[in-house]
Design a protein that fits this description.
- It is a single chain.
- This protein has 392 residues and is of the alpha+beta class.
- The protein has four domains: 157 residues, 3-Layer(aba) Sandwich (Molybdenum Cofactor Biosythetic Enzyme, Chain A), CATH 3.40.980; 58 residues, Molybdopterin biosynthesis moea protein, domain 2; 83 residues, Molybdopterin biosynthesis moea protein, domain 3 (Molybdopterin biosynthesis moeA protein, domain 3); 68 residues, MoeA, C-terminal, domain IV (Beta-clip, Beta Barrel), CATH 2.40.340.
- It contains five helices and 26 strands.
- β23 and β24 form a beta hairpin.
- α3 packs parallel to α5.
- It is elongated and about 95 Å long.
- It starts with a helix and ends with a strand.
- The mean pLDDT is 95.
């Protein structure tokens, strides 16, 4: 077995981003940039008003002295003439500042009578203008390669006047759950020795949430020749095959043997973590293969720890887990010789570890929203201790 941090380093060493493609901005949500976004235009495009009011030359303004209103400026409709001393232009937020103006006086300080406007004292010192390019200039890098296109990033891309982006291709992921006992949810009640396949749908949802495309979701019986054929078919149409179950060393554990005829080369085999020791990673026929434990909780914990970073790497994003230092609301027992990831729920007092940490527990899994990282050999932790935690 290898340590968790060593396994994470091997992910970064062995997994490269998929090739890039050009896609429309309308399809960019959730994708990862394969190239920097540079601004085609400055922002603001020109110097604009930050308030509704009147554009003036500040040096010519005398409180309570009338100034002549010579026009109006609205967003998309600039005032055509040059503003001279003693003149004012009615202006609205976002409108281009007229030539010759250097200040906008808010309308709250204005008193209009026909073509004249007077300003009461106290309108300064702010000038209420946004200079051209004060957000970014033409040619500036607005977003860097590797950025995920969340809604905030889409604002920046559109503001940079870019209708397309270069993005790494979405990983094609095939899911294979193994075991004679597994059946489609909803059908287990009719067979006493059947168990619902409770992880395949969850893994498919995780893949799609993290930007991947599920190309297959299949189950395989504990029949090695049949599994070898099934593995070969899945490898041909995927960038990553995720197989659950059959990862131990029993006579009917076929997760790795099924890929042997296809040239399986292991990156790592077993990691010193709890739950999830049987997790493994390899490559067969040029396709990545990730093996997850069969126990549902172990499968989901290792999917969070390994599958999510793999999907990120394939899309050119960062794989670094963002651990947070948090307070324990209840104590944790001492750990053994493996790094332990305890499932916990957030309450107002801090993180409350779930009472049953068994790897086969499913009913309480939905209440776990954090993983608490416990180093091997850690002593019992009391309530109030600070721990590293990862959103789950």
């Amino acid at each position: 077995m290898i340590a968790f941090d060593e396994a994470m380093a091997l992910l970064a060493e062995h997994i490269a981003p998929l090739d890039a493609e050009t896609i429309a901005l309308s399809k960019a949500a959730g994708r990862t940039l394969a190239a920097d976004i540079t601004a085609a235009i400055p922002s603001p495009r020109c110097t604009i008003s930050a308030m509704d009011g009147y554009a003036v030359r500040l040096s010519s303004v005398v409180p309570e002295t009338p100034m002549r209103v010579v026009g109006e400026a609205r967003p998309g409709h600039a005032h055509a003439g040059r503003l001279e001393a003693g003149m004012a232009v009615r202006i609205f937020t976002g409108a281009p500042l007229p030539e010759g103006a250097d200040c906008v006086i808010m309308q709250e300080y204005a008193s209009r009578a026909g073509d004249d406007v007077r300003f009461s004292a106290g309108f300064g010192p702010a000038r209420h203008i946004r200079q051209q390019g004060s957000d970014f200039a033409k040619g500036d890098v607005v977003l860097e390669q590797g950025t995920s296109c969340d809604p905030k990033a889409l604002v920046a891309i559109a503001a940079a006047d870019r209708a397309e982006i270069a993005a790494h291709r979405q990983p094609r992921v095939a899911l294979l759950a193994t075991g004679d006992e597994l059946v489609e949810p909803g059908s287990a009640e009719s067979a006493s020795d059947a168990i619902p396949d409770s992880t395949s749908y969850a893994l498919a949802a995780l893949v799609e949430r993290e930007g991947g495309v599920v190309t297959a979701r299949e189950r395989g019986l504990d029949d090695l020749p049949a599994l070898e054929r099934q593995a070969g078919a899945l490898l041909g149409g995927a960038d990553l095959v995720v197989v659950t179950g059959g990862a131990s060393v029993g006579e009917r554990d076929f997760a790795k043997p099924m890929f042997a005829p296809h040239g399986l080369e292991l990156v790592f085999d077993k990691v010193a973590i709890k739950p999830g020791k049987p997790v493994w990673l390899g490559r067969a026929g040029g396709t990545l293969v990730l093996g997850l434990p069969g126990n549902p909780t172990s499968a989901m914990v290792t999917a969070r720890l390994f599958l999510q970073p793999i999907l990120a790497l394939l899309q050119g994003a960062s794989t670094a887990h963002r651990w947070r230092t948090m307070l324990l609301a209840e104590g944790l027992p001492a750990t053994g010789d493996r790094e332990t990831f305890a499932r916990a729920a957030w309450v107002k007092e801090g993180l409350r570890p779930l009472g049953n940490q068994d790897s086969g527990v499913q009913g309480r899994l939905a209440r776990a929203d954090w993983l608490v990282r416990c180093p091997p050999g850690q002593a019992e932790l009391p309530a109030g201790a600070m721990v590293e935690a990862l959103p789950f």
